[in-house]
Specification:
The chain has 140 residues and is an alpha+beta fold. It contains 5 helices and 4 strands. The protein has a 4-stranded antiparallel β-sheet, covered by helices on one side. A hairpin with a 6-residue loop joins strand 2 and strand 3.
């Protein structure tokens, strides 16, 4: 991946619906070059898909949180496998430092959030956790 690819990805992140001609003009290359780069980045898995952003108020109210987890011993793989099956877990990140994993949680209500926390904290091998609710999001 070179600088043009990175510039192309940055433009697509801002607006994935930009026409090929507009992308080509912004990058100073031909339309064919842009099309070839998008095809290559997609086929290699660098670009995994295109999506939309919905105004936060337009979606159903959701409880969103970040949960940091400390894992006992060598149980990370087992815990990740379990967590990936929980519908409330939007993403699992491994990390270094005080916490071994960071989870992104989404639920429809505080009651569902409380149940999800309880289920996760009961997983064998989780030594401790800290959870913070996400209050506001500011798109980049």
């Amino acid at each position: 991946m070179d600088d043009k690819d990175r510039q192309l990805i940055a433009l697509l992140r801002k607006n994935a619906r930009l026409p090929i001609a507009a992308l080509a003009k912004a990058l100073g290359v031909s339309r064919g070059t842009v099309q070839n780069r998008i095809s290559r980045l997609t086929s290699h898995g660098t670009i995994q898909g295109f999506t939309i952003r919905v105004r936060q108020e337009a979606e159903m109210p959701r409880v969103r949180a970040i949960m940091m987890i400390a894992v006992e011993g060598e149980r990370s793989e087992q815990i990740i496998k379990l967590l990936r099956g929980y519908p409330e877990v939007a993403a699992v990140h491994t990390t270094n430092g005080r916490w071994d994993m960071v989870l992104e949680l989404n639920t429809e209500s505080l009651e569902a959030f409380d149940l999800a926390l309880h289920r996760i904290r009961q997983i064998e091998g989780i030594a401790g956790s800290e959870t913070s609710l996400l209050l506001s999001t500011y798109p980049t």
